[in-house]
From TrEMBL:
Pfam families: Glycos_transf_1
Domain Glycosyl transferase family: 169-306
Biological process per Gene Ontology, one example term: lipopolysaccharide biosynthetic process
InterPro entries: Glyco_trans_1
GO MF term (any one): glycosyltransferase activity
Name the UniProt record assigns to this protein: Glycosyl transferase group 1
Keywords, alphabetical: Transferase
Taxonomic superkingdom: Bacteria
Organism: Desulfocucumis palustris
PANTHER family linked to this entry: GLYCOSYLTRANSFERASE WBBK-RELATED
Length: 342
């Protein structure tokens, strides 16, 4: 008998693609390869058909809290991919959306209810687990499930991008164009370097995107990149830079590293736990720190890129994430699995 799992996530997870969307889609894909039966729902529903309920994302927490209450009401075991970091510092930065801090503080009670009431939390790192425990006494047990990337990113062809745009060897940032991802800080940091900058991702904030264009004339913005184009895009870049106000650890960094890019990433969040000395780190609030990190990354020997690619391939693929997720389910169900594993 197959394990029947219900994933519940925000209703716009496909329309507004972000890291949590990819985590939902890929975890489902690889759990099914392990023999589980996985359904995705974006609204509270009758749960009688399912053995375990898996919720995603406690940053945008309102929908998750509704799913959580519904599951508890129906006496179903709940696991949560928390996808959590503390927003407080970002809320204080100059480009933070108005009212964000109040919204964050006012929604903390819902997060704490989920953290305490779930059967198991599935943070993406030890640092995330420790943060939850420190901020929420009495939180449920944690089982770390690292984020992943697809092996296809190791097979990207840089000539695909060159044929479309006529250049290669640029600085790349793959992320939603918005203040938290800090593309404006990156644009300002690269002034005077002569480096070509490519920002790839949907525009969440049009005014912010316009400021990025003004800060770095000549920047190429690719706002509708298809997923199948990403391996070639990463492969054509010299370095991928994610100077966000925090990352956990940033799926784009995993994908870019697997594609052979040098990685520059924020020192806020959990990237250091994933990449160690194989990435270069920057302070998102300091443009000179971002600039210096990019220059240092470009001067790294090729063998470090190869080591990073090997490290990700051996530790952070989606099949690894699916196996750890399955182990978490087994812990909650506390029985020898009665479902098939292919």
């Amino acid at each position: 008998m197959k394990l029947r799992v219900l994933f519940q996530t925000r209703p716009d997870y496909l329309k507004n693609i972000a890291g949590d969307s990819i985590q939902v889609i890929k975890t489902k894909e690889y759990l099914e390869k392990l023999g589980a039966e996985v359904t995705i729902s974006a609204s509270p529903t009758n749960l009688s058909h399912y053995d375990i309920i898996h919720l995603f994302n406690t940053t945008r927490v309102k929908e998750t809290h509704n799913f959580f209450k519904n599951a508890k009401k129906q006496n179903k075991p709940v696991v949560v991919s928390t996808i959590y970091w503390d927003f407080s510092e970002f809320c204080r930065c100059p480009d933070s959306p108005e009212g964000l801090y109040n919204n964050w503080v006012n929604s903390q009670a819902m997060r704490k209810a989920i953290f305490r009431g779930a059967n198991l939390l599935l943070p993406n790192s030890r640092a995330e687990a420790e943060l939850i425990k420190s901020q929420t006494p009495g939180a449920a047990p944690c089982h770390v499930v690292p984020n992943g990337a697809d092996q296809i990113f190791a097979l990207g062809d840089p000539d695909e991008f060159y044929r479309l745009h006529g250049f290669r060897d640029f600085i790349l940032c793959v992320a939603r164009i918005c203040p938290r991802k800090n593309q404006l800080g990156l644009a300002e940091a690269l002034k005077g370097t002569g480096l070509v900058l490519v920002l790839a991702g949907p525009v969440n904030d049009r005014e912010y995107a316009a400021r990025c264009r003004s800060a770095y004339p000549g920047v190429l913005m690719l706002n509708q990149v298809e997923h199948r184009q990403l391996p070639g895009l990463y492969a054509a870049a010299m370095a991928h830079v994610l100077p966000s106000w925090f990352e956990t650890p940033g799926l784009a960094s995993l994908e870019a590293g697997l594609a052979g890019c040098r990685i520059v990433t924020t020192d806020r969040g959990t990237a250091g736990e994933y990449f160690g000395h194989l990435a270069t780190y920057c302070d998102p609030g300091d443009t000179m720190s971002i600039r210096d990190a990019v220059i240092r990354a470009l001067n790294l020997p090729d063998k470090q890129q190869n080591s990073l690619k090997y490290h990700i391939s051996n530790n952070y693929l989606w099949q690894n994430a699916a196996m750890e997720t399955l182990r978490g389910y087994e812990t909650v169900l506390s029985v020898t699995p009665k479902f098939s594993i292919d």
